[in-house]
């Protein structure tokens, strides 16, 4: 082996070059893996929003459980399952006015009993 300065410089240059190439190849392999797996890294903000969303939904379901049976059934069909008033009347064999009245009563109970902090989220969820 030649211990000259040019030999050492060439050796170090080649070693660093191949280390960089190896690192880049490894990063590409990791990227392909995460794309195939479908992993999505969540930040603290999205986790916080998910927790708030869960709390709001749990509170809404708790309030719905406190509603009278008919009101609870119509409210669930109308707002949670997304059925129209006509579809609810056909399913339950009741008048359209009964459906409208029960939905209004249910919404009033929900808004009266719901914690004020959750109101913006309810408006967002009902759209």
Terminal Cα span: 76 Å
Question: What is the average of the pLDDT values?
Answer: 84
Quaternary organization? single chain
Number of helices, where a helix is a run of at least 4 consecutive DSSP H or I residues: 6
Uncertain residue segments: none
Share of residues in strands: under 5%
Q: Compute the gyration radius: what is it?
A: 30 Å
The structure class reads mainly alpha
The SSE order reads HHHHHH
Q: Could you say which overall geometry the principal axes of the C-alpha atoms support?
A: rod-shaped
Helix content: over 70%
The counted number of beta strands is 0
What kind of sheet is the major sheet? none
Give an overview in words.
This protein starts with a helix and ends with a helix. The model has no long low-confidence stretch (mean pLDDT 84). Helix 3 (69-80) crosses helix 5. The protein has six helices and no strands. It has 127 residues and is an all-alpha fold. Helix content is 80%, strand content 0%.
SSE map:
Blueprint: H1 5-37, H2 44-66, H3 69-80, H4 85-92, H5 96-113, H6 119-126
Helix pairs in contact: 3-5
Task: Describe the structure concisely.
This protein is an all-alpha fold and 127 residues long. Helix content is 80%, strand content 0%. The chain is rod-shaped and about 100 Å long.
């Amino acid at each position: 082996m030649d211990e000259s300065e040019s030999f050492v410089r060439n050796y170090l240059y080649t070693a660093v070059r191949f280390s960089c190439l190896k690192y880049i190849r490894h990063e590409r392999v990791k990227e392909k893996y995460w794309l195939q797996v479908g992993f999505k890294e969540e930040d603290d903000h999205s986790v916080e929003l998910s927790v708030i969303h869960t709390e709001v939904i749990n509170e809404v379901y708790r309030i719905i459980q406190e509603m009278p049976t008919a009101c609870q059934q119509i409210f669930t069909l109308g707002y949670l399952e997304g059925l129209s008033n006509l579809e609810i009347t056909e399913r339950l064999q009741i008048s359209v006015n009964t459906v409208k009245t029960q939905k209004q009563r249910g919404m009033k109970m929900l808004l009266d009993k719901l914690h004020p902090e959750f109101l913006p989220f309810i408006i967002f969820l009902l759209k």
